[in-house]
Amino acid sequence: MGPRIGPVGKELQMPNKHMKAMVDTEDAPGGKCSPNPQDLRPSVFHSIKFFILCHSFLQLAQLMISGYLKSSISTVEKRFGLSSQTSGLLAAFNEVGNTALIVFVSYFGSRVHRPRLIGYGAILVTLAGVLMTVPHFISEPYRYDHTSSVDMPQDLEASLCLPATDTPTSAPSNSSCSGYTEVQHLTMVGIMFMAQTLLGVGSVPIQPFGISYIDDFAHNSNSPLYLGILFAVTTMGPGMAYGLGSLMLRLYVDIDRMPEGGISLTSKDPRWVGAWWLGFLISAGAVALAAIPYFFFPKEMPKEGHELHFWRKGLAVSEAPVNKGEDSSSEQNSGENPEKDGLAQIAPDLTVTQFIKVFPRVLLRTLRHPIFLLVVLSQVCMSSMVAGMATFLPKFLERQFSITASYANLLIGCLTIPLAIVGIVVGGILVKRLRLGPMRCGTLCLLGTLSGLLFSLPLFFMGCSTHQIAGIYHQPDAQPGLELFPGCMEPCSCPSDDFNPVCDTSTGVEYLTPCHAGCTRVVQEAPDKRQVFYANCSCVAGGGPVPAGSCDSTCSHLVLPFMILVSLGAALASVTHTPSFMLILRGVKKEDKTLAVGIQFMLQRVLAWMPSPVIHGSAIDTTCVYWAQSCGRRAVCRYYDHNLLRNRFLGLQFFFKTGSLACFTLILAILRQQNKEEGTKETIPSPGLQQQLLDSGPKKEPEESRV
């Protein structure tokens, strides 16, 4: 907030200006200053800086619990047999409850206790995080080989090539499909969807109320920097989610109920499932701790004084210049005209029915301005790109470069997220220090988007084709695989729904199971007995042995250059975040500020965060070449066409970036046209001109064109 007030004796020796600054800064909301020295001591809960600190931690924890599902999306797919489209819908389902309430909550923000409502929302987020872990505890232990997980030798030998008369034990994999099994599966998936909905409802008041609370009680010249810091710290939430996912997915999913003989899997095995549920418990605890201070913040706090950030120079400035630096919406909302078109002023007097009748008119009034609409559309395009990338980039890296889910999350959390934070901070500092007007903010957004688009072009060429998979995928330019040993697996009775891949490293051919490779014997050569080898393989030259697990990608070395380009593009795109947000926040009238933020978040959720993961998941599913079957239904995809996967996934990213670039181009064209029109009307003052959205005044007066 500012320097703490010292002993009373010293305060009485202060000059009048210092005393006035103290009273203006630390008075109670009612405007009365108590002579009691204990009352003069400022409370930490009346400091906007402390609120920013608390809100940064809360949004960090809230986005950590929201982003954790994205970091473990491929693991959840394998554990519960979900397609990418279904997992994308699950990741986007938290926006359903959020979208249904965010506009109403934002519009009625002036009539509620905003900090307290933020605390209640955080409690709901905590409950949602705990609910997400329930499917793990009510489900049976994970069986990666469709057999009993107690008898280790039986597990290893279940996928061997055995004569047809010796394989009656393969039937239980199909007989396990019962009505109870399907009901249990639907129940677990339904619980996760309910938890995601509750997570969205709890997140409704957190960001809009926090942003509007900061902007209402922070000084106008400091608000861009504060919001830049808030966004930067908040962005660490997804980064910590990916880091947490990297740690948790190294642990086996049933770490709380391990079989007696242990497991014969490594984290590189495609059947490996990490402890996805454990991260939700940790994130929920962090949100619960962050919710506590919000029950002690006041409904209103004193407006931050100009003196606190300009120090001595600020003490010499009179009140008139301080008000002069405020945006035009604040000048228009000085209370001189109570019958203005500020509908939010009478919102506390409206019932819900009356608000529903009036809301369309207010919504149209807000969307009618082309700059506001185009900025929101550009953010929608950028959010669509971010939503798809955040949800499926770990899975894309796993498939494209043959890396583990833990390592993929580590790369995103250590490279992409930190550079995005740097971009957001740079954008906030540029707006603060250079006092960028609307025209220059639009230019900055255009350059950042264009640079990010250029960095994404080389990504289309950084990858390789799917390796050869016997009986499933054959590379056109590769040498024959199974054709070298025709009929090598005919004596075997291989289950169609089993999945225990082995790789012939000499030819680069992968087989679904040791049975499909004609292997009849298990050899454990690794010291830790977690790496399994199979021998006497009739489909393999020399008979093996062959290691369990998928074949490594031939372009694994490209994963670091790929992530560096992705991270640089994310940093450049993040520079546009604060300038574009300030175009909206400073462009609307003060009484419509909360509503404008709510409309912005509503459109981002409806048009970006809800459909984008489903769109990306559907596009990924179209590149699948082999689906696993579970009780007659299509479950998780086992193999993808890597070239199609890369082109379609990155093609969607390129499409959304191009849309954002087009919106910023139109914004600059409209702003340039407005400047030309204002130049022709310099000699004709227009009192209604200040009410125009993003009206920057004459171009020769930079102080009024300040964002």
Automatic annotation (TrEMBL):
<keyword id="KW-0813">Transport</keyword>
<feature type="transmembrane region" description="Helical">
    <location>
        <begin position="183"/>
        <end position="204"/>
    </location>
</feature>
<feature type="domain" description="Kazal-like">
    <location>
        <begin position="482"/>
        <end position="541"/>
    </location>
</feature>
<dbReference type="GO" id="GO:0043252">
    <property type="term" value="P:sodium-independent organic anion transport"/>
</dbReference>
<feature type="region of interest" description="Disordered">
    <location>
        <begin position="679"/>
        <end position="707"/>
    </location>
</feature>
<feature type="transmembrane region" description="Helical">
    <location>
        <begin position="273"/>
        <end position="297"/>
    </location>
</feature>
<keyword id="KW-1133">Transmembrane helix</keyword>
<protein>
    <recommendedName>
        <fullName>Solute carrier organic anion transporter family member</fullName>
    </recommendedName>
</protein>
<keyword id="KW-0812">Transmembrane</keyword>
<dbReference type="InterPro" id="IPR002350">
    <property type="entry name" value="Kazal_dom"/>
</dbReference>
<feature type="transmembrane region" description="Helical">
    <location>
        <begin position="558"/>
        <end position="585"/>
    </location>
</feature>
<dbReference type="Pfam" id="PF03137">
    <property type="entry name" value="OATP"/>
</dbReference>
<dbReference type="InterPro" id="IPR036058">
    <property type="entry name" value="Kazal_dom_sf"/>
</dbReference>
<keyword id="KW-1015">Disulfide bond</keyword>
<feature type="transmembrane region" description="Helical">
    <location>
        <begin position="649"/>
        <end position="671"/>
    </location>
</feature>
<feature type="transmembrane region" description="Helical">
    <location>
        <begin position="117"/>
        <end position="138"/>
    </location>
</feature>
<keyword id="KW-1003">Cell membrane</keyword>
<feature type="transmembrane region" description="Helical">
    <location>
        <begin position="371"/>
        <end position="393"/>
    </location>
</feature>
<feature type="transmembrane region" description="Helical">
    <location>
        <begin position="443"/>
        <end position="462"/>
    </location>
</feature>
<dbReference type="GO" id="GO:0015125">
    <property type="term" value="F:bile acid transmembrane transporter activity"/>
</dbReference>
<dbReference type="GO" id="GO:0006811">
    <property type="term" value="P:monoatomic ion transport"/>
</dbReference>
<dbReference type="GO" id="GO:0016324">
    <property type="term" value="C:apical plasma membrane"/>
</dbReference>
<comment type="similarity">
    <text>Belongs to the organo anion transporter (TC 2.A.60) family.</text>
</comment>
<feature type="region of interest" description="Disordered">
    <location>
        <begin position="321"/>
        <end position="340"/>
    </location>
</feature>
<feature type="transmembrane region" description="Helical">
    <location>
        <begin position="225"/>
        <end position="253"/>
    </location>
</feature>
<feature type="compositionally biased region" description="Basic and acidic residues">
    <location>
        <begin position="697"/>
        <end position="707"/>
    </location>
</feature>
<feature type="transmembrane region" description="Helical">
    <location>
        <begin position="89"/>
        <end position="110"/>
    </location>
</feature>
<dbReference type="GO" id="GO:0015347">
    <property type="term" value="F:sodium-independent organic anion transmembrane transporter activity"/>
</dbReference>
<dbReference type="GO" id="GO:0016323">
    <property type="term" value="C:basolateral plasma membrane"/>
</dbReference>
<keyword id="KW-0406">Ion transport</keyword>
<dbReference type="InterPro" id="IPR004156">
    <property type="entry name" value="OATP"/>
</dbReference>
<dbReference type="InterPro" id="IPR036259">
    <property type="entry name" value="MFS_trans_sf"/>
</dbReference>
<feature type="transmembrane region" description="Helical">
    <location>
        <begin position="405"/>
        <end position="431"/>
    </location>
</feature>
<keyword id="KW-0472">Membrane</keyword>
